[in-house]
Structure formats: structure tokens, C-alpha cells
Amino acid sequence: MFTVEQIEKAHSKVKSGADFPDYIKEIRELGVKSFETWVKDSHTEYFGENDYSTKSQPKYTDLKIGDEVDKERFTHQLKSHQRRETDYMKFCKDCAETGIEKWIVDLDQFTCIYYDKAGNEILTEEIPH
Fold first, then answer.
1. Residue-by-residue DSSP string for the chain
2. Whole-model pTM?
3. Which domain of life is it from (predicted)?
4. Domain span holding position 30
5. Angle between helices 20-30 and 4-11 (to 10 degrees)
6. Strand partners, 125
7. CA 81 to CA 3: how far, in whole Å?
8. Is 56 a member of any domain?
9. Is residue 22 assigned to a domain?
């Protein structure tokens, strides 16, 4: 079993999107199979073996998620984040402004899928491993 504290310790090493693959590797070794992060407040639910799950607390005051998805702008901002040009809070604000409600990371498939408020897949990325 893993704890939110263990995951948050691993996440504290992430300074930009470029650090994300190492973070994924570390939490996968803890037993995390997938997780779902909500942009509005960055609370995350983590899932492991045998229906185990745990949830983090909100990280900030609620952001308003845009009603219209701007996939092109979101993709551009995501790439900036992955190049270490923005921090996590800026990335979350960018997600909210471009209509991204959440992302789901599958650590078996090594994918990160971004969704809008209607549950539509907006972008699927492969996570380097």
C-alpha cells in the first residue's frame, strides 16, 4: 500500500513537465497503477492493486474551468511546461483557461489523457519511460 505522503514526497521533486517521467517511475514503484488529477483544485485520486485508492487534499482555491476547449493553445502551453518554461501552478491555470478539467495517468500504458468538462478526450500523450 502506498500513501499520499509518499506520493507527495516524490512529487516535490517535480519542478516542471520535464521531471514528470521520473516522478511516474517513482510512484509506479510504490504501487500506483493510475491517478486522476482535477484541475480546479489539483486534488488527485490514486489507484493501486485490489481496488485500493487514496485521495490527496486540494492544493489551491478552485480555478474556473473554461467552457470552450482550445486544444491548440493547450497543446502549446503543455509543450512550454514540458520545456521547463512554466511551473505547476501556471500549468494548472493554463489548463483551466483552455477548458481542460482533468487528466488521467495510466502507469501500465504510460499514457496521460487530458479531458474537458464533458468527459471528451482532448489529448493523449505517451509518457517516456
1. ---HHHHHHHHTT--SGGGHHHHHHHHHHHT--EEEEETTT--EEEE-GGG-EEEPPP-SSPPPPPSS--HHHHHHHHHHHHTTSS-HHHHHHHHHHTT--EEEEETTTTEEEEE-TT--EEEEEEPP-
2. 0.90
3. Bacteria
4. 4-51+61-126
5. 160
6. 112
7. 27
8. no
9. yes
Number of domains in the chain: 1
Q: Cβ neighbours of residue 28 under 8 Å, at least 6 residues apart?
A: 107
- The residue count for the chain: 129
Q: What is the identity of the amino acid at 27? A: I
Other beta carbons less than 10 A from residue 61's beta carbon: 7
Quick check: is 84 in a domain? yes
CA distance 30 to 48: 9
Give pLDDT tens digits for 71-120: 999 999 999 988 888 888 999 999 999 999 999 999 999 999 999 999 99
